[in-house]
Amino acid sequence: MSSQRHIRIGIDIGGTFTDLQILDERTGALHSLKTPTTPEDPSTGLMAGIEAAAARYGFALADIRLLLHGTTIATNAVLERRLARGVLLTTAGFEDVLEIGRHTRRDIYGLKQKVEPPLVPRDRRLGVAERLRGDGSVETALGEAAIGSVLERLHALEPEAIAICLLNAHVDPVHEQRLSEHVRAAFPDLPLSLSSEVSPEIREYERSSTTVLNALLMPVVGRYIGRLRQRLAERAPGARLLLVQSNGGVCSPEMAARQPVRLLLSGPSGGALATLRAAEALGRPNLVGGDMGGTSYDICVVQGGQVTLMTQGEIDGLPVRLPMIEIRTIGSGGGSLAAVDAGGRLTVGPRSAGSTPGPVCYRRGGTEPAVTDANIVLGRLDGRFFLGGAMALDTEGAREAIADRVARPLGLGAEEAAEGMLTVVNNALASAARLSLFEKGLDPRDFSLLSFGGAGGLHAIPVAEELGIGEVIFPADASTFSAFGILHSNIVHDVARSRVMPALAESLPRIAESCAALREQGDAMLEADGVPAEQRRFALSADLRYRGQAFELVVPWAALGDGATPDETALAALLAEFHRTHERRFSYCNPDAPVELVALRLTATGILPRAEAVRRPGLGADRQPEARRIFLGGCWQEAAVHQREQITGPVEGPALIEEEYTTAFIAPGWRCAPGPDGTLIARRLEA
Fold first, then answer.
1. Within the chain, what is the greatest distance between any pair of CA atoms?
2. Fewer CB under 10 Å: which end of the chain, C or N?
3. Arithmetic mean of pLDDT, 646-661
């Protein structure tokens, strides 16, 4: 790669806007840019954003060295069920695992449980005559007759993708590998997903679900990556493309195409990375990160300077057994649509106007009022300065839509109805954040709220008041803050080996063998990514449980991070940490009870070079806005309006703080002042 290339770009594609952070590694200049998302093909909007950034900030597309890309392409495909026609090959007798699932009630008080149909219907789930025991020994060998029968049935089904998930393949993949060789020979052009490669862990349902999701996403994500790489080759030759995974790291396009299921939380994880980085920079180990964009509100919690990395999550009720940052998402954003139902109840979201047509005030044909329409009707947005003046908003059109769709059915004025819309959405945001904290036994009063995303600043302080949080932090470039997190991410691979064994000295030889195999696998993956040996980092952890428990705790095995061989001292330290973790999580532990080791995990990280960044002011930094009337608390009030770059001292509410791509609302009873690292920090005034 040419040393002349000096531009690094982080991109976060949301449902409404595509956000970019552009770093010139020679000068350290850091810029931000927003451009409308193109849902029909997100790569179109991405390339438009890159070209607009090049024209605005004076670099050539050939100068781009690194393109770090967070995407919702996999998430949206699952939510909208735009998936390939797939076939599942599994051990005979286990064809219905996907349909049986887990016998848990999501709504314990609901009389009618919502049951989604399985991703692969029964007639496309084929049993294979073979079986491995739990220790990896062969009970029923995989014969040529069984393989031939499966291939014959596969031809008749005309699949677009194939998933193979055989019983106990996480212990020994020999049958999956042999079957896959024959399937690839018969269907060389079809995407093929093996559970022993995607999720080699115990629990048949979760492993099957993950493998099937991966197979069905391969054509969708593969086509997108292919289009994007072609466009980059034509316009930005030499730029290295890396995609953000659910674990917060990035991976190569080849890895993303093979295992697209790892991209399911690609977009939101950028915001979590940025929140973690802010916690370190600001010296605030307890942060609630709230990312409010046009379509959704994503919440992540940093506790004690760390985010929670789950070994299993879910998407639209479908389990995914892969490491991912713990993020809660609800359908509340600037584009969330308001409606009055048949019972006279005002609802806001989860339906969204998206980028096309967008809120009514965008003048793109939208007819249903959205949260952004409410904010402009209440005077909290300047319609002349939206997106730095790039888009003029239609205040009267928004008012008419709210009056027609919300105010009249409720018997209210347009302003009262708009204020009601904000009350509903703010309560929804606070409820989601409260749940993220309460389920961990955490008190919101011990946390600060970090607000980002294009719509976040207008709602942050009301949400904090609802939660009882006394400090709200507005980071620099808040509207593109997730892209900032993506800009500074590293290559990360998570690999695991699932072997249930007693956590005793007698198991150390097997543990050492698994650790060595994981280290070798992680090294090979980073080698394939071109990461020099001195920039590789490895961290080991273990899934542990008391014998008889049905769940595990992931415990870091710090003593083995440098590749040391596990011994009795290291094992004792691991068990002591497990008991402490169990005590913290569940308020009890039993050091005398036998402990089982269920899985070993390795995180292999390739450190990408970093450059110091200095933010450059956006459009309108020298603008001199005046006071503006806003509707607040049932009446119109005067509110001071400030340009963010010009703030040098405290600002007391009611006030609005504007910048190119977002606006922050400072409520009465709050004072906001400049903080470290370019932040603005608002605190509740003492009564």
1. 82
2. C
3. 92
